[in-house]
TrEMBL record, chain A:
Gene Ontology MF, one: UDP-glucose 4-epimerase activity
SUPFAM superfamilies: NAD(P)-binding Rossmann-fold domains (SSF51735)
UniProt-listed PANTHER family: CHLOROPLAST STEM-LOOP BINDING PROTEIN OF 41 KDA A, CHLOROPLASTIC, UDP-GLUCOSE 4-EPIMERASE
Entry's Gene Ontology cellular component terms: cytosol
Signal peptide: none
Pfam families xref list: Epimerase
Name of the protein in its database record: Chloroplast stem-loop binding protein of 41 kDa a, chloroplastic
All copies of domain NAD-dependent epimerase/dehydratase, residue ranges: 21-240
GO annotation, biological process: monosaccharide metabolic process
Origin organism lineage: Eukaryota, Viridiplantae, Chlorophyta, core chlorophytes, Trebouxiophyceae
UniProtKB/TrEMBL annotation, chain B:
Pfam families according to UniProt: Epimerase
PANTHER family linked: CHLOROPLAST STEM-LOOP BINDING PROTEIN OF 41 KDA B, CHLOROPLASTIC, UDP-GLUCOSE 4-EPIMERASE
The name this protein goes by in its record: Chloroplast stem-loop binding protein of 41 kDa b, chloroplastic
GO molecular function terms noted in the UniProt entry: UDP-glucose 4-epimerase activity
SUPFAM superfamilies the record matches: NAD(P)-binding Rossmann-fold domains
Ranges where the NAD-dependent epimerase/dehydratase domain occurs: 9-226
A Gene Ontology cellular-component term: cytosol
Matches recorded under InterPro entries: Epimerase_deHydtase, NAD(P)-bd_dom_sf
UniProt record, GO biological process: monosaccharide metabolic process
Organism lineage: Eukaryota, Viridiplantae, Chlorophyta, core chlorophytes, Trebouxiophyceae
Superkingdom of origin organism: Eukaryota
Organism whose genome encodes this protein: Auxenochlorella protothecoides (Green microalga)
Length: 334, 334
């Protein structure tokens, strides 16, 4: 039985050509998942306060690569390009049962959309926020829903606003995500080095724990909250795999999958400028979370682990042609 | 969930730590409890939580069989003609020990075994789930072998895998290790960077979990990780112990364990690696969740035990001094 709920799936890109690739990639997988579940999905790609003809130009450029290039392959997907901070444009959009804010990180960007839909009866607002909004506890590192947040975090301001406006909402807090059509480096940074037999810089002793999640698992969790699942309303959920992996462990896992030697180059992440110079793609300390709440309340479970995906990730890297690129590691060498 | 129908329970061990709490809970729940021990330790020693009444009631109710469980003949004779329907094996280390009991008591309804999360094979991906592989070469291989034997023998078994246990009456120097140094105003030596993540569980929460598996159909032939809900770093544990003792944050000295030849002596009470498990399975199946968070649990241990007794072992800082000397540091005079 297919549901006939209509969904709005909002995806914004920022002007000046800098696309929010990380979010667009999740948006693509989420759209696919929701379509499979029988929903109608519209992706809104927008820039704030950018004239329409500029949006169209940027669209032509963007649709050449990354997640945007995949839109044509997703059957039944409606894609709209416009300005999501233009309230009259937003008013013109058809009614939606669910709105997914998959781009905005602060109240200025998110407010127009919230205001456009808050009045409309029964619209559920799903906010793809970030686990980066947690205030890390130096003693007990795992991030758990309900833990203190950084008051200054833009995401927190958005959450406060949606609560204040009494919009039925669900907030998802992802960590790092990998998978097909991503626009942001995850395992690729490691493979750049492993496949060129270069040592891999890791902060400190390489014991930092990080949760890496496959985009399909992330999309599945968000889709599980749709539409308006009672257990999901008014709730926050961490979106992540149920396993964390160490920074050194990532190197070992990928090296084994690639049939290469794992070589680590530990560096002091606290030395000024060092972390940036290496380009290490993750926070240097522990950054992992529990997804127990989603398992309990949404009946979701992850299908992927990083170890199981490693071989596929190596193949995808090789197939992308990235291995042919010349790379200079001298800037980040230790 | 209703408590189990009254059982005739044989507990192997039970006069120290876990057993002392568990046996009391079982007696209070209306079961007949018999402890099988050599008789070296008093059968029903008073514990900090006891009142005169509760201690008297427990002493009157609990039964004892004197036997050395490693002595096959002694066990056979001691259990001849005895009818127990449940065994709690609290102190078994090797499979042969459990085998003896199974032979002597062939019609058991349930064999509940105190195993250990130490049996897990070290992995890059954590936390450990109960489905993770055991390590046949680990120091805890006896526990793994015992679990395998129980499954092979076809008895209705349940295995409990604690991580680090703490609480009043702990005979392992876990929290006591830190309390001694905090009390002496000494620096605390932590191997590596102190970012290793581990997990501690209060003994009372463990006892409750043990009680909840009794007669529980969900627990049939299942293993459960049992510990506290949150994980803690080594540095974090030191800070929380100091808070529990009402002391200022001690000086943390990070040392390289490889730089010092200490022979068999330990410079730190916990294994120098990440070591933590998910307790979600127990939370789902057993209607159980830890009551103590680590801060409250350490305070409980400090107030009821260490502050009054100074712990089970006398303070010995000789290894600390060796390491400090090797690291070119002076200990703060007491």
């Amino acid at each position: 039985m297919t549901r006939q709920h209509k969904l709005g799936h909002v995806l914004q890109w920022r002007p000046m050509g800098r696309n929010s690739g990380g979010h667009a990639f999740l948006g693509l997988h989420l759209a696919q998942r929701l379509l499979e579940q029988g929903h109608e999905v519209t992706i809104l790609n927008a820039g704030s306060k950018v004239p329409r003809h500029v949006v169209v130009e940027m669209r032509e450029k963007l649709e050449k690569n990354g997640p945007f290039a995949e839109y044509a392959n997703v059957k039944g997907l409606e894609v709209v390009w416009g300005d999501a901070t233009d309230s009259s444009f937003l008013e013109s959009l058809k009614p939606y049962d669910v709105v997914v804010e998959n781009n905005g990180k602060d109240l200025d960007t998110c407010k127009p959309l919230i205001d456009a839909f808050k009045g409309r009866k029964g619209t559920q607002y799903i906010f793809i926020a970030s686990a980066g909004a947690y205030k890390p506890d130096p003693n007990q590192p795992p991030l758990v829903e309900g833990d203190p947040r950084k008051e200054s975090a833009g995401h927190v301001a958005v959450e406060k606003y949606i609560e204040q406006e009494h919009l039925p909402y669900t907030v998802f807090q992802p960590l790092y995500i990998y998978g097909p059509h991503t626009a942001k480096d995850c395992e690729q940074w490691f493979l750049d080095r492993i496949l060129r037999d270069e040592p891999v810089p890791v902060p400190g002793n390489g014991l930092g724990l990080v949760t890496l999640s496959h985009v399909a698992d992330v999309a599945a969790m968000v889709a599980a909250a749709v539409p308006g699942k009672p257990a999901a309303l008014g709730q926050h959920f961490n979106v992540c795999s149920d396993r964390a992996v160490t920074h050194a462990g990532i190197v070992h896992i990928l090296a084994e999958a690639a049939g290469r030697e794992a070589r680590l180059a530990p560096f002091d992440a606290e030395e000024t400028g060092k972390l940036k110079a290496t380009g290490f793609p993750f926070r240097p300390g522990h950054f992992f979370a529990s997804s127990d709440k989603a398992k309990r309340e949404l009946g979701w479970k992850p299908e992927h682990t990083f170890t199981q995906d490693a071989a596929e990730l190596v193949e995808a890297y090789k197939a992308s042609g990235r291995l042919d690129q010349e790379m200079d590691f001298s800037g980040g060498s230790v | 969930m209703a408590s189990a129908a009254p059982s005739n329970i044989l507990m192997l061990g039970g006069t120290r730590f876990i057993g002392q709490y568990l046996a009391r809970q079982l007696v209070e729940e209306g079961h007949q409890v018999t402890l099988l021990t050599r008789g070296k330790a008093p059968i029903a020693a008073r514990i900090p939580d006891d009142t005169d009444e509760s201690h008297a009631a427990y002493s009157d109710a609990v039964q004892h069989i004197a036997a050395d469980r490693k002595d096959a003949d002694a066990v056979k004779n001691a259990l001849k003609g005895r009818e127990f329907n449940v065994v709690y094996d609290i102190n078994g280390r090797e499979a042969e020990e459990a085998d003896l009991i199974l032979e002597a008591l062939p019609s058991l309804e349930q064999y509940i075994y105190c195993s250990s999360a130490g049996l897990y094979k070290a992995s890059h991906e954590l936390p450990h789930f109960e489905t993770d592989a055991g390590d046949p070469k680990s120091r805890h291989k006896g526990k793994l072998n015992t679990e395998e034997l129980l499954e092979k023998r076809g008895v209705n078994w349940t295995s409990i895998r604690p991580v680090y246990i703490y609480g009043p009456l702990n005979y392992n120097p876990v929290e006591e290790w830190f309390f001694h140094r905090i009390a002496a105003g000494r620096p605390i030596l932590v191997p590596g960077k102190g970012n290793q993540v581990t997990q501690l569980g209060h003994v009372k929460d463990l006892a409750t979990a043990f009680r909840k598996v009794l007669g529980n159909p969900k627990a049939a032939r299942q293993a459960y990780n049992i510990s506290g809900e949150r994980f803690v770093t080594f540095d974090g544990l030191v800070r929380l112990c100091a808070e529990a003792a009402g002391a200022p944050e001690p000086e943390l000295v990070h040392f390289d364990p490889k730089a010092h030849d200490l022979g068999k002596a330990k410079a730190f009470p916990l294994r120098d690696q990440h070591f933590f498990t998910s307790i979600a399975k127990a939370q789902a199946d057993l209607d159980w969740t830890p009551e103590f968070d680590l801060a409250a649990g350490l305070r409980d241990s400090y107030e009821k035990d260490f502050s009054k007794t100074g712990g089970r072992k006398k303070a010995d800082f000789s290894v600390d001094d060796l390491v400090l000397k090797g690291a070119g540091k002076q200990a703060v005079p007491a």
